[in-house]
Amino acid sequence: MPLNLRTGVLVVGSLDWESTIYGGAFVGTPDLVRSNWRKTRLKVDKRSTQYVRVPIRYGRLSESRGNTYTMVFSPELGSRLGVGKAIHCRNAVNEVDDLMRDARELWKAEQPKGNGMISASWGCVANLTSPDFLDDKDAAARTKLLEDWAEITREQKGYGVFAFSAADRTAAGDRLVIENGRLNIPWPKYRNHLPLSLDLVLLTATKAELCRKEHTARRKKSPARGKRTQRRTTIFATIGWLEFRQQTMRKSKNT
After folding, report:
1. Interval 161-179: pLDDT, tens
2. Which of 32, 73, 193, 225 is the most exposed place for a label (fewest CB within 10 A)?
3. How does strand 7-11 pair with strand 82-88?
4. CA nearest 29: which of 240, 252, 255, 254?
5. For residue 21, which of 9, 12, 11, 31 has the smallest C-alpha distance?
């Protein structure tokens, strides 16, 4: 009997604004690979895009985007959640091959020269399952799907082998933050705190890059000053992102 799992992709940062046209300040030419991925693999009706609360922050400099910050998932931010988008996949998942097909297409949108892989030194495709994922009459088949997924990720060279902060590891329950192909963060919730109405989501877990100086400064600052520093970092990252978008728009107008 088919599982017919309701699946989606958890989208944050440039994977969102480089894969569609929003108009206004976002005017520009979307990335063709990402745009095609969004049109062919995800549902495009408005009801299939849902805003959810997730633990994200600016955490990695992207050289390909003018050294602006990119988003990373960070378990330690469980009490200070950001907002992402859960976009429903076009096709239901019945077996691990279906799940891998969506994972490979997601990775191709992230790294076009991925050669069928779902990981690299800077990140990987991971999954999340709903809290009641195994509370179903198809529990055995669902368990096998997760076991098969975990086996495939173990075969991927260097999959998920990048460091997370001590606070991230603690928030993940003193476990690996990426374990058996799963990112150990809570299941996303809507803004009204109800759980996302999907069975499983895929996402791109990105390697964070924090310099030693930043860690030292955080330890020395008082809590109040630390909050001000965090706000300034977010502002600077946002300004950098806007500058990059403006540069992209000017180049597109001149070509």
Report:
1. 887 888 998 999 888 899 9
2. 193
3. antiparallel
4. 252
5. 31
Provide φ and ψ at 218, rounded to 5°: -65, -40
Domain boundaries, the chain: 7-210
CB 205 within 8 A of CB 126: yes
Which amino acid, residue 32? L
From the list 157, 175, 168, 74, the residue with the least C-alpha distance to 121 is 157
More confident call, 13 vs 37: 37
Q: What is the C-alpha separation between 56 and 115, in angstroms, rounded?
A: 28
Contact 112, 35 (CB under 8 A): no
pTM: 0.79
Determine how many CB atoms are found less than 10 A away from the CB of residue 198: 22
pLDDT digits (tens, 9 = 90+) for 62-94: 666 666 677 899 999 998 999 999 999 999 999
Q: Tell me how far apart the 2 most distant CA atoms of the chain are, in Å.
A: 59
Rounded CA-CA distance 46/55 in Å is 24
